Amino acid sequence: MSYDIVFKRIYQAPDPGDGARVLVDRLWPRGKRRESLALTDWYRDASPSPALRRQYHQGEISDAVFATRYRGELRDAPECLLPLMRHARQGRLTLLSAARDLEDSYLPILREALLKALDEQDA
């Protein structure tokens, strides 16, 4: 089965075609009121752990190390993907983040893990 999982910056206006809009950042975006975001959910557990996030943002680890460790966090806690998997099964899932460059953030890794988990359950 094919799933439609897309990324969008939280600062972009909601669109009727977004489907389920889930904020997957650990921190609430600055200057945004909940009512203005048209969120389906705010789900922190699928984002990188605070320690991993801190190491990456302080330049203590490389992109490759960050990606490997984040994949490990997702692998070690597969239950953290379940709410997102439910949304993905119902139609388009828009993963929202405050990251400036969505394709160079943790979101592609999260989508990869979601698609893999969905495929394993569908098999």
Determine the fraction of residues in helical runs and give it as a percent range.
25-40%
Span from first to last CA?
A: 10 Å
Coarse shape? globular
- Mean pLDDT level: 93
Poorly predicted sequence stretches spanning 5 or more consecutive residues:
none
Q: How many H/I helical runs? A: 4
The whole-angstrom Rg is 14 Å
User: What are the secondary-structure elements, in order, as H or E?
Assistant: EEEHHHEH
Number of strands: 4
Largest sheet, spatial ordering of strands: 1-4-2-3
Oligomer: single chain
- Broad structural category: alpha/beta
Largest sheet: 4 strands, parallel
- What is the beta-strand fraction? 5-15%
Question: How are the SSEs placed, and which strands pair?
Answer:
Layout lengths: L4 E5 L10 E4 L17 E2 L7 H8 L5 H14 L5 H8 L3 E5 L9 H16 L1
Parallel strand pairs: 1-4, 2-3, 2-4
